[in-house]
Write a structure and sequence with these properties.
- The complex is a heterodimer of chains A (about 90) and B (about 325).
- Chain A is mainly alpha-helical.
- Chain A has 2 helices and 2 strands; from the N terminus they run βααβ.
- Chain B is of the alpha+beta class and about 325 residues long.
- Chain B contains 8 helices and 18 strands.
- Chain B starts with 6 loop residues before the first strand and ends with a helix.
- In chain B, strands 16-15-14-17-18 form a 5-stranded antiparallel beta sheet. Chain B has a 4-stranded parallel beta sheet with strand order 2-1-6-7, with helices on one face.
- Classes of the chains: A mainly alpha (about 90), B alpha+beta (about 325).
- The interface between A and B is large, with 78 and 102 residues.
């Protein structure tokens, strides 16, 4: 039996911004939502993110005192972050 | 690393623009920070020695620093580490688990590091039903709520509230599919009487119902340490955002900074601190009678958009917490 909430399922809008209000959890949504939010906000940071999102070239893995916006192609990168007690696995509401 | 003082470590993922936003402000304020994108952990050296003495060292871009140099950690939106190579998928999954355990163990070795927020506190604060129960014990008002798998209970609840009832996910509203085109979202929705026959479906999955509030505004409260920033979202000015203010990307939303009643402010601080959280993004409703209602607490909620669109300064409040003694 389908869940009751499936009555209300909707397709993701191309300019989804769920992430902007803190209820988004999926990496996919963060990529789309935050990047679009960033583009809409018109800040220097946002522009940088949009540029990085369009690039497949990894940069440094981490950095000190500088922004690291690396586009990572990973096998696990799209995995949702499930609730749990382990470090790195904290849920994002 | 530089000599600008104790380090603020920002742990997130590479696509987190809110972390970028904070970094930009940290740079302006000359705060020494490092950004750690957890998908990249597999490529970073670390070392922990417990011999005659104890050393815990991380490396970044050829520079090493001790865990003891980390004053604070802004733990935002980490993702699992990506492990490449030619190992079998189950072996790579195990390697990712080892990497998480190694880094988590190492970063937790300094008792003086301030976490905003500590992962364990985030986990403890991440269950909406528990939040509602705790908020009520904190004397915050919550809408009449039913979480159930019983169709008869769902029907009774809806009828008792004259079908002025909303339904929302218990955790989050993203259903990720194999293909992005097949992804589904579910917002908060009104339950109308013509869905009566569908209520049997709650038997297949726990479903959260609440009495619909007569909203004047939605209110987003951001807490950073003892700083409390409240912003009203004038969601009732447009039909599409009356039930869920996030619809249509909050297009043309009007914002205004608002002062919370002292007792509400104190209750929200108490709720946040009860979880051991330093930061929280809390959703409230102010109804047409001026009553304040608690909806939920987001321990890693977004805030940068409020600095940009509502004129708040949450970035500085967060940095103040991260660099304070």
């Amino acid at each position: 039996m389908k869940p009751f909430l499936s009555t209300f399922f909707e397709s993701r809008p191309t300019d989804d911004l769920l992430a902007a209000c803190g209820t988004s959890t999926g990496t996919r949504a963060k990529e789309n939502g935050d990047a679009d939010y960033a583009a809409a906000s018109g800040t220097q940071t946002s522009t940088a993110v949009r540029e990085e999102a369009d690039s497949d070239t990894p940069r440094s893995a981490a950095s000190v005192g500088t922004s690291t916006m690396t586009k990572v192609k990973s096998e696990s990168g799209d995995a949702d972050v499930a609730p749990g007690m382990a470090l790195w696995e904290a849920p994002v509401l | 690393l530089g000599s600008a003082g104790p380090l603020v470590l920002i742990i997130s993922n590479a696509l987190d623009v809110t972390a970028d936003f904070l970094q930009a402000r940290a740079r302006e304020r000359d705060v020494c920070f490092a950004r750690l994108n957890t998908e990249c952990l597999a490529t970073l050296p670390l070392e922990m020695r417990l011999e005659e003495s104890e050393t815990f060292r991380l490396a970044s871009e050829g520079k090493e620093f001790s865990v003891a140099e980390i004053r604070s950690v802004y733990f935002r939106r980490p993702v699992p580490p990506a492990v490449g190579g030619d190992a079998a998928p189950h072996v790579r999954a195990w390697m990712a688990s080892e990497i998480r355990s190694a880094w988590g163990g190492l970063l937790n070795t300094s008792p003086t590091t301030r976490w905003v927020n500590h992962p364990l506190a985030v986990s403890g604060a991440s269950y909406k039903p528990e939040q509602l129960a705790r908020a009520r014990r904190t004397a915050l008002r919550i809408p009449p709520t039913l979480l159930t798998t019983k169709p008869t209970s769902a029907l009774e609840f809806c009828e008792r509230h004259d079908w002025r009832v909303i339904v929302k996910p218990v955790a989050h509203g993203e259903i990720l599919a194999e293909s992005e085109a097949d992804d589904r979202l579910v917002y908060t929705n009104q339950v109308s009487e013509d869905l009566k026959q569908q209520l049997d479906r709650v038997a297949s999955c726990p479903t959260l119902f609440q009495r619909r509030l007569d909203k004047a505004t939605d209110v987003r409260v951001t807490i950073a340490g003892h700083t409390v920033v409240a912003v009203e979202l004038h969601s009732q000015e447009r039909e599409f955002s009356t039930i869920d203010c996030r619809r249509e990307n909050m297009r043309d939303m009007r914002y205004s900074i608002v002062e919370l009643p002292p007792e509400i402010r104190a209750q929200l601080l108490a709720l946040t601190q009860s979880y051991g959280l330093v930061f929280a993004a809390i959703d409230l409703v102010r109804d047409v009678n001026g009553t304040w209602w608690f909806l939920e607490l987001n321990p890693a909620g977004q805030w940068a958009w409020l600095d940009e669109r509502a004129g708040t300064n949450i970035a500085d409040a967060l940095l103040d917490v991260l660099i304070s003694e």
